[in-house]
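pls ignore typos typing on phone
2-acetamido-2-deoxy-beta-D-glucopyranose + seq
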Amino acid sequence: MSTTYFSVLLLFLCLSLFTSLTTTIYSKPLTSPYLSSTTLFPNYQKMLKSFKIFIYKPNEALTFNSPAESLFYSSLQNCPFVTQNPEEAHLFFVPFRSTISMRSIGRVVKRHREELPYWNRTLGADHFYLSCAGLGYESDRNLVELKKNSVQISCFPASQGKFVPHKDIALPPVSTSHAPHAPDNKTTKFLGYFRQVKLKESSLINELVNDPNFLIESEPSDQLTYTMRLASSKFCLFEYGGDVSGIGEALSFGCVPVVITDRPIQDLPFMDVLRWQEIVVFVNNNGGAKELKRALGDTGGKRYEQMKGLGVKASQHFVWNELPQPLDSFHTVMYQLWLRRHTIRYARWG
Ligand SMILES: *[C@@H]1O[C@H](CO)[C@@H](O)[C@H](O)[C@H]1NC(C)=O
Ligand SMILES: *[C@@H]1O[C@H](CO)[C@@H](O)[C@H](O)[C@H]1NC(C)=O
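k done
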C-alpha cells in the first residue's frame, strides 16, 4: 500500500520536475543570436583598434580553388590589420596555394622557421593558414606542428577528421547567388523548401518529394523565383555535407534553416560567436521524414518567430563582400582569429 503511494508520489514529482524543466527551456525568450553580446561588441571594437597580422612572403603567386578562400585571402592582404613589422604582430599568416602538395607545405614552413625567429618561438601556435579541405596528419615535423599548433581556416563543411574543434575556424560558404530584397507580398506557402543543386540520392529528401507541404526543386529558374521560395517557406532544408551555400540567404529572408545530419557538427562557422541552436534546427537524418516533421512541428509559434528574428539578425555575418564591411563574414572570421591570439608563447632562451 505505502510503496504504491510512494511510487505514485515519486512519479508525480518526476513528472512535475520534467514539465517545469521543459517549460523553462521552451518559455525562456530568445533575445540574442550571440553567445555573449556583452563581450562580443566591446571586444570587436578592441580588435578593430589593435589587431596586427604579419603575412609571410609567398614565393609564388597564389591561387585558390574555392571562392571563400579567394575572398578571404584578398580581403586579408588588403585589410588594415596587416603589419610589415613582425615584432608587433599578434598572429602570423602562412600563405600557400590550394593545390600544393603536403611535402611542399612542409618546405614552406621549414623556410619560414629558418629565416625568421617567430615560428620557433611558439612552434607555430600564433600562426594560421588557409586550407579549404583541411590538412591530415603527417609525420614531417613541420607539418605536425602546423596541423597541431596553428589555426587552420577551412571551408564549411570541412572534411571529416581534418578539423580540430576549438582551434580551427570554418569559413561560411559564399552564396552562389545574390538575392535581391524580399518581395513585399510574401505569404508562407510551404513548410519546407529544399534546393537540389546536384541530384543526390537522399532517402529523406525522396520521401518528401510528393508531400505537398514541401517544395523540392532543382535550381530555380531565376533569382527572383529563388528569393520568393526563401521568403515563402517556413523552413529551408540543408543536408550537412551537401550544398549549404544558401544558409546565409535563408537566414536573411527569414526562412529558418534546418540542417539534416547524421552526426554532431563540430565545424560550424562562428561557433564561438553565435548560438547556433537558436537560429537553426538540427535534425538527425536517421529518423527519416517522420522525425523531420516532428522537429518542425516542435518549432512552432513563438519559438519559431524568435528563431526567425534572431536568424535575420545573425545573417549579416554570412555576407561576403568584395570590399569587407563591418561585421560581415570576413570581419567575423577575423574576430575569431582575434579570440585565438592568446597562445602560449614559449619563453625565449639564449
Ligand atoms: C628554429 O629551429 C630549427 C630547429 O630546431 C633550426 O634549424 C632553425 O635554424 C631555427 N630558426 C632560427 C631562426 O633560429
Ligand atoms: C508577388 O510579387 C511578385 C513581383 O512583384 C509577383 O511576380 C508575384 O506573382 C507575386 N506573388 C503573389 C503570390 O502575389
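Residues 101 and 184 are 51 Å apart (CA to CA). Residues 17-24 have pLDDT under 50 and may be disordered. more later
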